[in-house]
Amino acid sequence: MLEALYEHQSRAGGYPLLKSDGARRWLEQLRPLLGSYAMLYCAGEERAEAFLSLRVKTYPTYLDLKPRASIGECYVEEAFRGQGVGRNLFKEATSWCAQKGLGELELQTTNGNTGAESFWEELGFEKELTQWKRNL
Predict the structure, then answer these.
(1) What domains does the chain contain, in order, with CATH numbers?
(2) Of 19, 44, 89, 92, which has the maximum CB count within 10 A?
(3) Maximum mean pLDDT: which of 20-24, 28-32, 104-108
(4) Which residues are within 8 A (CB) of 94 and not within 5 positions of it... i.e. 6 or more apart?
């Protein structure tokens, strides 16, 4: 499913494709953090239909900012979109954030992903910044 997410984002021009062992490496890096600094939620009865990962994001001590949660990846297979699967994942994520005492939740979407933008806006998210890049 991680491969499907990155293929979807790559088509939108926002992300590179995963390496052939990228999903395994992603899970290996996330696994030691699960529970304390990161959480992974999956939905589906027989196989995963959707997933959401989030992490605690900390800031330098010289800034007057509290830690916040950051959604790293969120994907719902097309066949399951519009059925409340993503909303349920979001509810689980916000519950975990509340248990950790985190007051804010952030995420990024690729430009032009209007479906994701509408979904997150419906859940109360507001645009905070624009990220720019330049190839060298």
Answers:
(1) 2-122 (3.40.630.30)
(2) 89
(3) 104-108
(4) 105
